[in-house]
Amino acid sequence: MDLTMRTDLDPARLDSRGRTLSERGVLPAAQTPAQGGSLPGEPPPLESVRPTDLDVYLFREGTHSRIYRFLGAHPAVEAGRTGTYFATWAPDAQAVAVVGDFNGWDAGADRMAPRGDSGIWERFVPGVGPGALYKYHIRSRYRGYRMDKADPLAFRAEIPPRTASQVWDLGYGWDDGEWMARRGTRNGLDSPIAIYEMHFGSWRRVPEEGNRSLTYREMAHWLPPYLRESGYTHVEFLPLMEHPFYGSWGYEGTGYFAATSRYGTPQELMGLVEELHRNDIGVFLDWVPSHFPQDGHSLGFYDGTHLYEHDDPRLGVHPDWGSYIFNYGRREVSSFLLSSAAFWMDRYHLDGLRVDAVASMLYRDYSRRAGEWIPNRYGGRENLEAIDFLRRLNIMLYRDFPGTQSIAEESTAWPGVSRPTEMGGLGFGLKWDMGWMHDTLRYMSRDPIHRQYHHNDLTFRAIYQFHENFVLALSHDEVVHGKGPLYAKMPGDPWQKLAQLRLLYAYQYALPGKKLLFMGGEAAQEREWDHETSLDWDRWTQEGPAGLFRWVRDLNLLYRTQPALHATEFHPETFQWVDAGDSRESTLAFLRRGTARDPPVLVVLNFTPVPRHQRRYPVPHAGRWRELLNSDARDYGGSGVGNLGEVWAPPYSTGGKGGVLSLTLPPLGALFLRPEET
Predict the structure, then answer these.
(1) pTM
(2) What would the pLDDT profile of 370-401 be if each residue is shown by its tens digit?
(3) Are 483 and 162 in contact (CB under 8 A)?
(4) What is the pLDDT of residue 2?
């Protein structure tokens, strides 16, 4: 693979369908990102962007999921004059004005008018177009509060540390219709989903230019072919919503409708999504409705009152992060969050949202001591308003954006997270299996000689593995804050560390559940992830890590091509232990089954550095079994111990269908086998 850095992306360069970047909307014609601007085109009439009475009613009811169509800043035409219609929700404001570079930031120049008793303030400002910078000057009814606030519905913002919002037109000439028409078959529960999780700003950097991050346009050049080569089906970006503090990785976001400007324009991000789709890669995005930062220009204390957040810190301030918690019981806030989720699916063609920190939303006492939280109306710890919101969120997403996925990062045993709302569940399609991650990494970090005493860490998951639709995630959270990279967690010398990483990933791919790996894990990143620096791309050229990369690539290929590993992975009858009790020698063996017409796959894992010879396993079919993958193969950096590619299973008895395999298990190795004829 050519890993040479290139930054010579010409705006006139043709894409795979013969269109220039300007023609696709990735770069507006005759403009550069620094000059602002959006796709050329006539702005719509003013009345088409102003809210109707029905819009106002649904917004106040808490059921509107498209408020970005009328709140915020919208270029428009009124009485032959082009300009921008501004609207914001500030029900406890005494006065609101739009200020910007077009009026000298003068709060007396463009005062806004209230829309009845809706709490919405609005104004059409002629002569203002895409690229203009603005804020809302809000004078509250209370305590003489005055503040310039960024627009909560802005489509673009200045690059931090600057905080102004920017008028922007989101028009884009999408050309991913083929993917959109069939994405339901790529995102379905019976489809292989192998996710590459990544932090945009630290995947690759350009050392020749001050170690800057790649832009959206450059990422569209680099990322799709890399993911195709790696075999991943999806990419998941850590939050790309605008966020003031880069070190929050996007999880302390202020722009719930604005893609961060650090890497380019909204159209350039759309171009990246489109390019990924045209390379058969689905796109998930982390989304954070659980909390938001207290930055003065943002949502907090927006109109001089606690508008978006609770006023009582026992409900409205997160004790771990010091951030505000949304008031899920306020109906307009519900419309705001529903609309944010819909916005990214609608305007950016995303294939799913991974909802962050769901557990912190579900429990009023999350991370709080006695006396630091307020029970619900029944005296319990459940956050009833947040539960109701999450259910309505998932109903909306699956109804309005069929073929997509909603994924919960939920770390407790809350029942039914990924079960339909009509069955009492929260309605998510998938849930991260945090218990598997903790148990497995704890087990793998032990010296192999001690693993025999902790065998239950491997087998316990079988008790609950079909209770939810799980994602087996080895995420960014496991390689930061002093935890070290996955490579460093493995005991032993460098060869053993790499062998155990291959074994860890084999175990992950063999179990029922979708897969996720954070960037760098595929080439045994040696140092802890640092959001300020690039991955160590020289690892991909070293023999051992390069072998690990080939192993991950081939695991992805195996997962995608063997229906037994993905087609029915959320059905209990598709998993069968062959040998779960060999704690003394730390081995596991189990069968994965697909539909009746699919051949089964036998998985055998050896968690010690000692080869095991003539290990006998009963299998459902006599005859030849082919070794699909062997993690100890020399091509992956292994020692070459195995079964010469195939094994014959004699029948149990004359006329019987089943047989017995006698296998050699490689050290710290994994085998995947399949019968040749069934």
Answers:
(1) 0.93
(2) 999 999 999 999 999 999 999 999 999 999 99
(3) no
(4) 56
In this predicted structure, what is the pLDDT of residue 1? 55
What tokens were used for 42? 């006539």
Give the pLDDT confidence score for residue 28 in this predicted structure.
36
The CB-based long-range contact list for 202-209 (8 Å cut-off, 24+ gap) reads 202/529, 202/530, 202/531, 202/532, 202/533, 202/534, 202/535, 203/519, 203/534, 203/535, 204/5, 204/534, 204/535, 204/537, 205/533, 205/534, 206/5, 206/7, 207/5, 207/534, 208/5, 208/7, 209/7
Token couple for 365: 């006492």
Q: How many CA atoms lie within 13 A of 80 on its CB side?
A: 0
Residues 6+ apart with CB under 8 A from 214: 200, 203, 204, 205, 206, 222, 263
CA 153 to each of CA 36, 87, 252, 291, 414: distance values in angstroms, whole numbers, following the listed order: 18, 9, 16, 17, 33
Q: How far apart are the first and last CA of the chain?
A: 38
Distance of CA 250 to the CA centre of its chain: 12
Closest CA to 260 of 136, 348, 357: 348
Q: How far apart are CA 269 and CA 261, in angstroms?
A: 10
Amino acid at 545: P
Q: Largest alpha-carbon pair distance within the chain? A: 95
343 within 8 A of 285, measured Cβ to Cβ: no
Q: DSSP assignment, residue 137?
A: E
Q: Who's near 415: CB < 8 A, 6+ residues apart?
A: 425, 467
- Dist CA 109 CA 422 (whole Å): 52
In this prediction, residue 466 carries a pLDDT of: 96
Residues whose CB falls within 8 Å of the CB of residue 117, separated by 6 or more in sequence, listed in order: none
pLDDT value of residue 264: 97
Residue 516: what pLDDT? 98
Are 434 and 417 within 8 A, CB to CB?
no
Name the one residue in this structure whose structure tokens are 């998510």: 428
Q: 3-state DSSP: the chain helix, strand, coil percent, rounded to 5?
A: 30, 25, 45
* Residues ≥6 apart with Cβ < 8 Å to 28: 22, 37, 38, 39, 40, 265, 267
Element (H, E) at 120: strand 120-126
Torsion of CA 181, 186, 191, 192, to 10 degrees: 170
- pLDDT (tens digit, 9 = 90+) per residue, 473-506? 999 999 999 999 999 999 999 999 999 999 999 9
Buried b (16+ CB within 10 A) or exposed e, 61-92: ebebbbbbbbbbbbbbbbeeeebbbbbbbbbb
Separation CA 438–CA 411 (nearest Å): 11
- Do the Cβ atoms of 622 and 651 come closer than 8 Å? yes
**Which pLDDT score is estimated for 35?**
29
In residues, how long is the chain? 678
Residues labelled catalytic: 356, 409
Compute the distance between CA of residue 534 and CA of residue 420 in angstroms, rounded to an integer. Answer: 40
Q: How far apart are CA 414 and CA 464, in angstroms?
A: 13
pLDDT at residue number 144: 83
Tokens 């045209």, located at residue:
278
Residues of the chain whose pLDDT is less than 50? 4-40
Q: How far apart are CA 220 and CA 225, in angstroms?
A: 9
Instruction: Please give the angle made by the CA atoms of 664, 668 and 673, to the nearest 5 degrees.
Output: 45
Confirm if 513 and 194 have CB atoms less than 8 A apart.
Answer: no
* Structure-block tokens of residue 170: 């989101």
Buried b or exposed e, range 405-424, using 16+ CB within 10 angstroms: bbbbbbbeebebbbbbbeee
Give the tokens for residue 331. 């109906």
Q: What token pair was written down for 389?
A: 């919101």
